[in-house]
């Protein structure tokens, strides 16, 4: 029998020390009091503080008044410690879905709520259980926010989201709520749903698991394309807020010309026009 060298213990210790040095350093525990919002860096398991949230005043989100009021009230109930629903904001592009989430959070902060906003990228949805473990014991309330959430063929990360929305064996932490925006009501492309139905032995059951994901959101808030009058109301609100001087008729003419060249009327298009106008007038704006 071969005997171990007399210094084998110290050799193993040196190997262990070397491996430890090669390992990435452990992330520091999150300091939730350091910021009002955070970005979830999934690869490092780290919550990155956001120095300044890019948001616009809630009053400037024109044309989505009904949706705005429902979301703010749901957020207020949650921030106050009362039951509230996870929210799926779906619908037309550029109509202020993500801006609405950030602005509603800003309203809660102005009201003195200890509410934190955490953004998670769609690609990191499968790390939600890890993030939940960090948030569960914290003395704050959190809105997890995923912008432009959707899933394509072959993806299975939606299962992690279902577990979070349903609560799993531990139950969803009472201090966490999930808000998502999407251009798809069912979070899946229609051709994927139809393909699943046409190739399955039991078409209904084949898509039920995926399509039912949106059912886990207690609130579905649809945001639709705006009319010309609503588009011009957005322009008027932005121009007044940022102090842009131009006769109303002329302002509307230029705003409509701007939307025509882009083939769309939406809140994003309106703000892009305002940015251009502010630049030409030498006026600085935030957002």
Could you list some keywords that capture this structure?
alpha/beta, Rossmann fold, 2 domains, seven-stranded mixed β-sheet, 44% helix
List the helices and strands and how they pair.
Blueprint: H1 8-22, E1 37-41, E2 46-49, H2 65-79, E3 87-91, H3 97-110, E4 115-119, H4 128-135, E5 141-146, H5 158-166, E6 176-182, H6 190-199, H7 203-211, E7 219-223, H8 228-242, H9 248-262, H10 267-281
Parallel strand pairs: 1-4, 3-6, 3-7, 4-5, 5-6
Antiparallel strand pairs: 1-2
Structure write-up:
The structure is a single chain. With 287 residues, the chain is an alpha/beta fold. The chain is built from ten helices and seven strands. It has helices at residues 8-22, 65-79, 97-110, 128-135, 158-166, 190-199, 203-211, 228-242, 248-262, 267-281, and strands at residues 37-41, 46-49, 87-91, 115-119, 141-146, 176-182, 219-223. Helix 2 (65-79) packs across helix 3. The chain is elongated. The protein starts with 7 loop residues before the first helix and ends in a 6-residue tail after the last helix.
């Amino acid at each position: 029998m071969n005997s171990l060298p007399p210094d084998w213990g110290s050799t193993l210790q040196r190997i262990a020390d070397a491996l430890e040095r090669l390992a990435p350093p452990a992330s520091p525990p999150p300091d939730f009091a350091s910021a009002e919002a955070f970005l979830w860096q999934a690869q490092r398991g780290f919550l990155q503080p956001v120095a300044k949230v890019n948001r616009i005043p809630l009053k400037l989100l024109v044309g989505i008044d009904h949706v705005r009021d429902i979301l703010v009230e749901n957020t207020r109930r949650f921030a106050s410690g009362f039951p509230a629903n996870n929210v799926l904001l779906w619908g037309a592009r550029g109509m202020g879905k993500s801006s609405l989430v950030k602005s509603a959070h800003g309203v809660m902060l102005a009201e003195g709520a200890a509410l934190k906003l955490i953004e998670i990228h769609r690609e990191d949805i499968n790390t939600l259980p890890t993030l939940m473990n960090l948030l569960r014991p914290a003395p704050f309330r959190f809105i997890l926010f995923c912008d432009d959430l959707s899933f394509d063929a072959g993806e299975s990360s939606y299962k992690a989201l279902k577990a979070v929305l349903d609560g799993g064996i531990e139950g969803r932490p009472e201090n966490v709520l999930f808000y998502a925006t999407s251009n798809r009501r069912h979070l899946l492309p229609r051709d994927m749903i139809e393909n699943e139905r046409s190739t399955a032995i039991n078409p209904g059951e084949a898509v039920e698991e995926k399509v039912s994901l949106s059912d886990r959101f207690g609130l579905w808030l649809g945001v639709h394309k705006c009319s010309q009058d609503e588009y011009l109301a957005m322009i008027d609100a932005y121009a007044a807020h940022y102090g842009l001087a131009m006769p109303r008729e002329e302002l509307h003419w230029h705003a409509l010309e701007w939307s025509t060249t882009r083939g769309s009327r939406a809140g994003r298009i309106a703000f892009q026009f305002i940015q251009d106008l502010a630049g030409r007038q030498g006026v600085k704006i935030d957002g």
